[in-house]
Design a protein that fits this description.
Organism (chain B): Brachybacterium nesterenkovii
Radius of gyration of chain A: 27 Å
CATH class of the largest domain in chain B: Mainly Alpha
Membrane topology (chain B): Multi-pass membrane protein
CATH class of the largest domain in chain A: Mainly Alpha
Domain ABC transmembrane type-1 (chain B): 143-374
Oligomer: heterodimer
CATH topology of the largest domain in chain A: MetI-like fold
Strand order of the largest sheet of chain B: 1-2
Largest sheet of chain A: none
Largest sheet of chain B: 2 strands, antiparallel
CATH superfamily of the largest domain in chain A: MetI-like
Distance between the termini of chain A: 39 Å
CATH superfamily of the largest domain in chain B: MetI-like
CATH architecture of the largest domain in chain B: Orthogonal Bundle
Distance between the termini of chain B: 33 Å
Strand content of chain A: under 5%
Shape of chain A: globular
Radius of gyration of chain B: 30 Å
Number of strands of chain A: 0
Number of domains of chain B: 2
Transmembrane segments (chain B): 28-48, 54-75, 87-107, 139-172, 184-210, 216-235, 357-382
Largest interface: A-B, 92 and 93 residues
Number of helices of chain B: 14
GO molecular function (chain B): phosphate transmembrane transporter activity
CATH architecture of the largest domain in chain A: Orthogonal Bundle
Structural class of chain B: mainly alpha
Helix content of chain A: over 70%
Amino acid sequence: MSTIDASNKPAARKTVASGSGRRAGDTIFSALSVGSGLIIFLALAAVAVFLSLQSREAIEGSRELTGSADAVSLLEYTGPLIFGTVFAAVLALLMAVPVAVGIALFISHYASRKLSTPLGYLIDLLAAVPSVVFGLWGGVWLVPRLEPLYLFLNKHLGFIPLFAGEPTAPMKNLASASVVLAVMILPIITAVSREVFLQTPRLQEEAALALGATRWEMIKSVVLPFGKSGVISASMLGLGRALGETMAVLMVMSPGFTYSLHIFEVGRHQSIAANIAAQSAESTGIDMSRLIFTGLVLFVITFVINAIARAIVSRGPKS
Amino acid sequence: MSETPAAHTAAPAARARIDTTSERHLPWYHLALTGLASAVLAAIILLALGKLSIAGVVVLGYLLHLIIGFAYSRVREGRRWATDRFVSLLVFGAFGLALIPLVSLLMEVIVRGAPRLVAPGFLTGDMAGVIGGMDAGGIWHAIVGTLLVTFWASVISVPIGLFTAIFLVEYARTGWMKVLGKGITFLVDVMTGIPSIVAGLFGLALFVTVTSNPGIRIGMMGAVALSLLMIPTVVRSSEEMIRLVPMDLREASYALGVPKWLTIVRVVLRTAIAGLTTSVTLAVARVIGETAPLLLTVGALPLLNTNMVSGRMQTLPTFINSQYKLGNAVCNSDTLTNPITGIEHACSVAINFDRAWAAALVLIMIVMVLNIVARLVSYFFAPKSGR
């Protein structure tokens, strides 16, 4: 644009000429910005490419493709891992969501305004704790304390398949891992739900109260319907995080490779992430390649879950 | 509230639906009294069973109060207020429940970690020659390793993240840049959801492919893996901070003839500097405790190694994990001699757990300090918003 001006008027040309150094600065800066954006494209492409490259060996050498009975079947190898990952994450979600919604309501609608911000920080503090410390705490402190509960449920509610089986101490089972996972995803679900609850139109809340509704009736008829999509997407984000969490599962659960429903039995389940962390140090060649393949599967699962969560968020109410 | 005159003079139909004689809202201390009664009852039950403890009274008392409080309110206040009371109790209970892990975790880490932390040589020593249950060893090498890996991860992520945020806010406004911006926003979302172990696998796969050495484990691999986790956090929060800068400031700068890049550097970034510092600090705090990627990429080493491009390194998170995995030590003799230094040490069964807890305490302190610094920066230096 300015080049046309410059060719027409000598005076304008002069200013442009003196400003060419500045425009060089502009060019460099915008190139840097665009370049950084492109690096993100490249990085994600690189994740997909390098993981695929490294897992090719496992796919080509699998029983499904080679047909030989000696080869390891990728389906049989990955199946129990996917089952364990999803099982633990879903259990964690079932435990975390009601509590998180309760906390979010507490902070947004029950606690006084002065208290709500510090209380929010307190819950955020949980998010700041490194996962390895959660694993340590879960393995040393939590597991022995959950044992009586497990034995009680196993004895009295053992007819339910989930609680059946034979729990043995130390209780490094799927249930313990799920409890730790639930604690770890609590802050994210709480934070997102709280934000949505706080966005509820104030007038609607006051209208409900003015009609004589109790606080719970107001929440049930105004806040929860308004925040429903927010809570769902928050849960999906939490699920995504629970699926990919490594250390809590690695440190709190004894691994096993079955499709067992008995969450109190030790050595029955394993998650993809924990399996990679546990096996990678001793694996080379096709074993390593198989681990990378399971990592690729995990990446795809979490990608799908997160994409669904984002889609729900974008459809949800705008502030 | 429900005892307003309006309720009594309501139309007959309404009076029939809402039984006004049984509906009233009692003051809050009724709830406190039923709570006290429940706690006493819980204490009596536990005493009868011989299992009296404060935790037991709190848990059983809370559960009893759910029933007693509801029943009391049902009789005195009616169904609607009873439900309200019940839900209030549940909501308070949920918050209390979330405090259990938080408080117990911090307590455990401090109580179990502090004695070993102040032991001589723990913060300054390394693990060279420390075997079995030897009551010795330190974490200096792990602290340095953690700081180095995180520093290099930040060196990679902060410029990329910051420039991407600048691109998203300042450049991705029209035309193809807007399309690119949308794509990048989507990809940043995807990156936020990458499991940390996958980031580790990426670091591994990348370096193994490039160097064609399957056994390679160096600090830089960890930094690259961590930066994959750090970049989206930096982009997200810096983008938010840059967006907060008022448009008027930019326009005023443009009106004075200042070029765009100088406006961004001198006006936008300078205004947002406090928020940007906060977001970078929080991003550092987030990745400094990452364990899984480092397990795959950095490996472990009992010695100090400050070379990022050669040899394995020890970091605090992986140190905690490895000590935890060792479990209780076996003590066959009272003393053990360090084969490298030749010094004799006592034998302790729980030494590995002690070291793990103490290292966890150090790690948590680093994370907390970073978080506090971030909050202080945003509290003291952030421009006051219009709200």
